[in-house]
Amino acid sequence: MATTALVPIANGSEDIESVTIIDVLRRAGVDVTVASVHEERTITAARQTRITADALISECSGVTYDVIALPGGMPGAENLGASEPLQEQLRAQRDAGRWYAAICAAPAVALEPNGLLEGRAATAHPGFQSRLANQSRVNERVVIDGNCITSQGPGSALEFSLALVEALFGKDKRDEVAAPMVLPT
């Protein structure tokens, strides 16, 4: 059975983070579904890149994914945090012990206010770190705590995405995906 990922996107999602998560997971052979949290599939990212999703978030309800990974960006992270169908999926993901992840503003804006970081260490973009209740690991570029992975921003997007690959498949697969991208293994 294929390994699956849901990457929700919204108007204002961070361009680099959105595309990097999708790209790296697909390089690893993950069946990635990109879902818009809006009523239309095409969103305009933070830097005006237009991205067309595979589905609407409402079409993904009730589907189980091995990982749900949120890009940051503003107001994209706020839009993801306000999407009740997405938040329901994230709560189910957390409760089932499956992976969920967020980068940049999303840990602080989409996860923390919705109770999805309770009892967990996390990081976020430096401009949003003060919004995290647990400050113990905010200075780390990528933080893994239980089944939750968080990261700081566009500059850590490759590390974050490779951490997702390693969580799903192990270090050998992470290294296999990183090598052709000319990244340190």
Automatic annotation (TrEMBL):
A biological process from GO: glyoxal metabolic process
InterPro entries: Class_I_gatase-like (IPR029062), DJ-1 (IPR006287), DJ-1/PfpI (IPR002818), Prot/Nucl_acid_deglycase (IPR050325)
Alphabetic keyword roster: Repeat
UniProt KW Disulfide bond keyword: no
CDD domains in UniProt: GATase1_DJ-1 (cd03135)
One Pfam family linked to the record: DJ-1_PfpI
Annotated DJ-1/PfpI domain residues: 4-166
Keyword Repeat: yes
GO CC terms in record: cytoplasm
NCBIfam families, A to Z: not_thiJ
Official protein name in the record: 4-methyl-5(B-hydroxyethyl)-thiazole monophosphate biosynthesis
Organism encoding this protein: Halospina denitrificans
Lineage: Bacteria, Pseudomonadati, Pseudomonadota, Gammaproteobacteria, Halospina
